[in-house]
Predict the structure.
Amino acid sequence: MQNWRRNKFAFSVLFLPPAAWLVIFFTLPLAIVWVYSFGARGPLGEIILDWSAVSLGNYARSLEWINLEIVAKSIWIAVVATAICIGLGFPLAMGIAFASPRYRNILLLLVILPFWTNLLIRTYAWIAVLRERGHVNFALEWLHDTINGGLAVLGLPALLGAFEPLQLLYNQNAVIIGIVYVNLPFMVLPLYATLEKLDRSYLEASLDLGAGQWRTLFSVTVPLSLPGISTGVLLTFILALGSFLTPDLLGGPDSIMIGNLIAQQFGSARDWPFGAALSFLLMYATFIILWVKAMVAKREGGSAF
Amino acid sequence: MTEKPGIISIRNVSRRFGTVTAVHTVSLEIGEGEFFALLGPSGCGKTTLLRMLAGFESPTEGEIVIAGIPMLGVDPNRRPVNMVFQSYAVFPHMTVEQNVGYGLRVTGVARAEAAERVKEALSLVKLGGFEGRMPSQLSGGQRQRVALARALVKRPKVLLLDEPLSALDAKLREAMQIELVRLQKTVGITFVIVTHDQDEALSMANRIAVMEAGRVRQVAAPADLYEFPNSRFVAGFIGKLNLFEGRVAGVQDGKLALDIKGLDRIAVPFDGHASGEIAIAIRPEKLRLDRQPSAADRIGVRGRVSEVAYYGNESHVYLKTDDGTSVTANVPNSARSTRPTIVVGDELWASWDAADTLVLTE
């Protein structure tokens, strides 16, 4: 197995180009950002990297209350979005995994289909759906007028009054809707992969032993798909935590996330050192989550993913 | 045993998948306390039939009655049967005790009673002391015992076993055959086993249904099936045989007179109806090999030894007759000797008692 590894020449020919690519375009820039995170912001927004300026000040600053609040809000939004993704994703993945093989690939394709459109365009589409004069409100208005019209035909007074459009956009709920929409495939795909491999005779054995469908779902199907659930939760949570575009476009005053804070530092605030420190804190958090997952998987004798 | 009202009645059951007919108008009565085997090559519909008994498939036509209750529309979790799956399907996330107790837990059996029954079932399959083990810490044979205990603890009217021995190695398989027969006698309920292995069916079952292409070809006790197969398929599927083609010449002194290719006209006792093209067969162990022409009251054929296969307890001698037909004879090595008595190239007469001839009309 893996004989090509023994052939040093073939190995280096295959290995060097991607390694060089990763070092030049990923590791080096990341190292530069890491160095910046210890610097200071000059009065005009320049980066000061003198020995006298180097400090942990940026990291200390990120622990100020105002920033911790943003972190807490980001975690809360990510947790809620991940929970909704499981609630929607598990039945969806089960539906696909248990569908007849003829439809399975089509259904999977439908899950992946949104990736073919740019995220920016898809997010703008949500604005068109949720805004005051958007599709949701149009539909509600039509329903409202129909009911009122129906009552008028029956000679009854209009019970519902004038239509007030719902404020669906530029708040935390819009952000959660957007994040759920963007990340749902990352929940469905690992769940599907696990459920599709699940030996059907476990489910049949449970039924045979007298358990109903719901009991079988919670006592057999869910426990046996825990590897897929944890992978899906992890992917969704990490991606949700780092969201930037969705809260930027769909969010309002109550829904700034870490991603927006970082973008501000590199953008309008011109405080790259502080932005760099925040970026690294987010990355450390992600690494810790992945490490915990790997440890748990190792103890259970499975692989990390 | 068959005359008692059957615990399972299968009446004209068919099962079609699209254009494929997996089970074709099968009718069977299985009696209480029987060890019944569904035997056939893969794809013959035996597993589909078993799954219809368990409730995982429903018949396209016909009716299944278990313990007097029609099973149409009855879900698997409400049937008085339990199944041992081919893969065992022992839940990997539960201990042995939790696995065996699962079927009691989900149906609300009181905790104390459930614990008692789990203990009883585990000792029945000789797994006492394994309560806390996880399935990953068990061997294949032990996992199968867990699957057995898990089904038996439910006290079903019928235990269904889907190829239960196919995943075990040869030594363990034979031990498990004896074990299953012992278990069945102990608990006294009906066992229905699906297998493609004729030895398994012959050694364990009281009665066997041989299936081919969705149809039941013959239902009989093991010895009846072996000694009196009703067709070429059953005769060939169960045990080995030497087949000769021929045609019926007439009835002669209450016997059937046959013209068989490669033999002279022979007369065999036969009480059925036969005419036209026909085949006769003789089991290899019923042949006797002699160096002189066989006695006049026996049917004999001359051949040259083309191969000898030595198995220790017996040898299989392969003969080629003058017209090229192959004949196999199993010769017991009853005397202790290391010098072969029969060698390749020997000219021998193979003969058998006319009463041992299988007359196969279909």
Q: What stands out?
A: The first strand of chain B starts at residue 8 and ends at 17. The radius of gyration of chain B is 25 Å.
